[in-house]
TrEMBL record:
One of its GO terms (molecular function) is ATP binding. This is DALR anticodon binding domain-containing protein. Gene3D superfamilies: Isoleucyl-tRNA Synthetase, Domain 1. PANTHER family: DALR ANTICODON-BINDING DOMAIN-CONTAINING PROTEIN 3 (PTHR16043:SF1), DALRD3 PROTEIN (PTHR16043). Residues 48-187 form the DALR anticodon binding domain. It comes from Meganyctiphanes norvegica.
Length: 187
């Protein structure tokens, strides 16, 4: 552990615990058991944080390559050919998560504004984040978005994928903010 390592671990543990507590439906009692050998309870929540951190590292790496002149910078969205996002995984990220998010927010807001004092279902946001993390992880494992050495003919697809992942990263940040969780800082 270097400087700030304890603080980093504490913030990640807090985020995992908040996500774990909010993953339970409001009408379900929370059962907390602490056992040294049992890390099942927080594994799924750590998976969410891990996938967000992967995106942070990807974009930090991209910015480093741009700063060193090894890669051209990201062009404006008006110059991106988003039709290059054509894999089933890319379509899942777009259709199932990016375009479904407003429905999750609408349901959440209706619960908050209901006259019958329904509790907002934070658990729906946590489930959304967990499903998104699984889809993102599969995508990230199958497609190498950021090549070591860029080839000009592959840059348009790389840019489209970077923008897709930038949207996913922002969506995760919005979910974290909604839940009152600080997104992980990458060390």
């Amino acid at each position: 552990g270097g400087k700030g390592w304890d603080e980093f671990l504490q913030s990640q543990a807090e985020a995992c615990m908040i996500l774990q507590l909010l993953s339970v439906s409001p009408n379900t009692p929370v059962k907390v058991e602490v056992q040294e050998s049992d890390n099942q309870n927080t594994r799924a929540m750590a998976f969410i944080l891990y996938n967000y951190a992967r995106l942070c590292v990807l974009f930090d790496s991209f910015q480093s390559k741009v700063a060193s002149g090894d890669m051209p910078s990201l062009p404006d969205t008006s110059e991106i050919n988003f039709s290059l996002l054509s894999t089933d995984d890319e379509w899942s990220l777009i259709w199932v998560f990016v375009l479904d998010w407003p429905g999750v927010v609408e349901t959440f807001a209706q619960d908050m504004l209901s006259a019958d004092n329904r509790l907002p279902k934070f658990s729906a946001v946590v489930r959304f984040l967990l499903s998104l993390s699984h889809c993102l992880s599969a995508y990230y494992s199958r497609y190498h978005v950021l090549p070591q050495t860029p080839q000009n003919h592959l840059l348009p697809q790389m840019y489209a994928r970077l923008y897709l992942l930038k949207i996913i990263q922002r969506l995760m940040e919005i979910c974290f903010h909604t839940l009152g969780v600080s997104p992980p800082r990458v060390m």
